[in-house]
Amino acid sequence: MSERLNGYRGGLKLAVLDLAGTVIDYGSSAPAGAFVELFARRGISVSDAEARGPMGMHKRDHIAALCALPHVAAQWREKHGAAVSDADIDRMYADFIPLQMSVLPKYADLIPGSAAAVATLREMGLKIAFTTGYNCEMLDIVLAAAAEQGLQADTAVCGTDVPAGRPAPWMALECAARLNVYPPAACIKFGDTLVDIEAGLNAGMWSVGTALSGNMAGLALEEWNGLTEDEQARLRSEAHAAMKTAGAHAVVDSVADAPRIVARVNELLAAGAWPGVID
Fold it and tell me: Above 90 in pLDDT, residue 157?
């Protein structure tokens, strides 16, 4: 980090929030199910856990990553008589778009506490930005659903707005550029995937994982509430550990805890601590 960045003592100015699994769609069910269905239509078996593996990437990159899995590649070769090609991936992505759009309204409920957390962050003086691996048409559907429930951002960036999706930093940096916020130490990023963590770090921002509301636990709210306390504790421990190993400055169960993290970061920044240990 430069001396200028190390010397920043102002407060946070911008919160960059992922959408599915962080502020909307508890369990990030919409994209996972669509990927499983997409491959099933081609006679290829992909599990829910495998579908979630590359979550957070641009959706075409996500499809390519799934095609590169050894057992998926073997199934494809057996079923179609040749290795999967770039043209195959392009066709799958083209098919994925209407499939994903058709299920988005079904998974449009805000994650509990997200609207209140965003309202508090605004009261604390932060601007709000959304990022997503969805394309612009999908983003419009999700933004409309969020707005109907009282949640809006100052800007929103999707994977097709930038040269490369996560783990590249461009979506997060585009949010900061649109809202004229700098330096990166004045920005904090929240997301439910490991590539969210990487993207925040690559952008030079504070990077925080949301461990239970999205892809890491991979359970809808009803499924999570149906677990025993021991099962919940195990999943929480595993998800928190994975995100910390990925380099997260902090990990929370959901974005509902964002105001506490922002308050702590502001304390660290005032003390000249970058990157401090948040929790």
Answer: yes
